[in-house]
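This part of the workshop introduces the protein records we will be handling. A record pairs a protein's sequence with a compact description of its fold. Backbone structure tokens are a discrete shorthand for how the chain folds in space. The question running through the whole workshop is how a given chain folds. The record below serves as our worked example for the rest of this section.
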Amino acid sequence: MHIGDSIRRKNRETLVIKSLIWKTIVDIFKEKKAIDITDFIISITFRGSVIFVKTSKPMINYELLNIQDTIKNETQIKLKKIWIVIKDMEIRFL
């Protein structure tokens, strides 16, 4: 039973991180560009300290690259508030 609890906790943490990144990206893009990109984000995955954000429009990727530092900083601040630290975090837009 302890192994199952550990797996569920890990899955919950992954879901929280993905949701937080999603919300941060949407909020910052809406603030900076006045566009809601909720429908254009397809998925968010991460491997280690690299976060992959897949969108449906190459133009959105270009605009996200322009505000990448703001997204990264805001995400790290929000993660620290819930005691999650991702060292050397990198965000890549696909």
In short: Residues 2-33 form the longest helix (32 residues). The chain has three helices and three strands. The mean pLDDT is 82.
